[in-house]
Amino acid sequence: xxxxxxxxxxxxxxxxxxxxxxxxxxxxxxxxxxxxxxxxxxxxxxxxxxxxxxxxxxxxxxxxxxxxxxxxxxxxxxxxxxxxxxxxxxxxxxxxxxxxxxxxxxxxxxxxxxxxxxxxxxxxxxxxxxxxxxxxxxxxxxxxxxxxxxxxxxxxxxxxxxxxxxxxxxxxxxxxxxxxxxxxxxxxxxxxxxxxxxxxxxxxxxxxxxxxxxxxxxxxxxxxxxxxxxxxxxxxxxxxxxxx
Length: 244
Known about the structure:
The protein is mainly beta. Helix content is about 5%, strand content about 30%. The protein contains one helix and 34 strands. The strands form three sheets. A twelve-stranded parallel sheet has the order 2-5-8-11-14-17-20-23-26-29-32-34, with no helix packed on it. An eleven-stranded parallel sheet has the order 1-4-7-10-13-16-19-22-25-28-31, with no helix packed on it.
């Protein structure tokens, strides 16, 4: 059972926000303007669905959540607490948006993916699998966050970047361009990874390190500073504070 499924099970038992028997799908209260909510879907509490938004399947929108514009929430997805889903964003399968999080633009969540805290996902970003976006993280562009990857704190992931596997991006790190963060790699501190750079394996990049160009950082390498552009060749081990 995924973490999200465990959370949902606990909420059904103990939460004051989730109420299985709460009145649902009331026109003028929960459903406004041209919004559509299917028979099996549930909009309850102080939640609202407005504009041309659609809530379908067994999806649930509750708490003080708001789904608007042309957004779609379907399948078994949940949007709750103070979360907002708008523009043409889609939340599908068992994905969830909660807290004060926002999903906008043409962004898509599916699988067991979750967005929480004050995080924002927009553009054409895709958050899939069991990936999580939390804290005040910002994800945009054509990024792909997949697998069990975690993006949190105050970091940025933009452009056409990919964060996958069990990789983690945290603190104030920034990933953009066509950079790839894979496997169990960790990007932290104020590190930047961009262009076509790749960080993989169990590598850690932190401090104010800049990884760019065609740099390849993998294995068990620890990079805590300096500018790395690929001219130094693949770095697969050792602890470095500057490029050789």
